[in-house]
Amino acid sequence: MKNKIKILRAEHELTQQQLAEKVDVSRQTINAIEKGKFDPSLPLAFKISKLFNMSIEEIFQNE
Amino acid sequence: MKNKIKILRAEHELTQQQLAEKVDVSRQTINAIEKGKFDPSLPLAFKISKLFNMSIEEIFQNE
DNA sequence: TTTTAATGTAAAGTTTGTTTTACAAATATA
DNA sequence: TATATTTGTAAAACAAACTTTACATTAAAA
Question: Which residues form the HTH cro/C1-type domain (chains A, B) (predicted)?
Fold first, then answer.
């Protein structure tokens, strides 16, 4: 699953650490998701999409 | 996290077993998600939302 | 160029999602 | 009512998400 977190993070001028804190996970989790090592849980996907004011589908693309 | 799977399943006249097969998980997984025992993974949430032609946000409500 | 901040990565451990097997309870059908 | 189908649930095992610690690399700033 692909995602636009890195781009959104850049647009909002957030470091991985800052984003991690805002959605309450570790920096490594953000890094791993950005690098496609695994997909976020649904609750985390919701937190991220709310933070950026976007739908989950706009941020995460299945396949 | 709440969801409308049971309702959607009824509308589409699908058993838990049939839905499980369509989204490629076990019946127990569907049952557990319906009963709120745990949240689906993001990939599974995508499969379910595509099956019902709805957005993830329409089916799953965070908190 | 030196120092600091940010990112990439890895291993070990915990938690959560999922499967399999199995059985009991509820609902529909004969 | 008897039988079959559907749903609820539970335990053991495994997989995926996530944490913590730790260090190396890259990029930015002094």
Answer: 5-59
pTM, two decimal places: 0.95
The β-bridge relationship of strands B60-61 and A60-61 is: unpaired
- Contact between residue A1 and residue A62 where contact means Cβ atoms under 8 Å apart: yes
Do A26 and A17 touch, CB atoms closer than 8 A? no
Give me the long-range contacts of B11-19 (CB less than 8 A, separation at least 24): B12/B52, B19/B48, B19/B51
pLDDT confidence band for A35 (50 / 70 / 90): very high
Nearest CB neighbour to A1, from listed B39, B40, B42: B42
Please enumerate in sequence order all residues whose Cβ is within 8 A of that of B32, keeping only pairs 6 or more positions apart, or say none. B38
Whether B41 CB is under 7 Å from strand D: yes
Q: Is residue B61 situated within a structural domain?
A: no
Q: Quick one: which of A53, A42, A44 has its CA closest to A11?
A: A53
Q: Is A60 inside any structural domain?
A: no
Q: Distance from first CA to last CA of chain B, Å, rounded?
A: 5
Residue B60 forms part of a structural domain: no
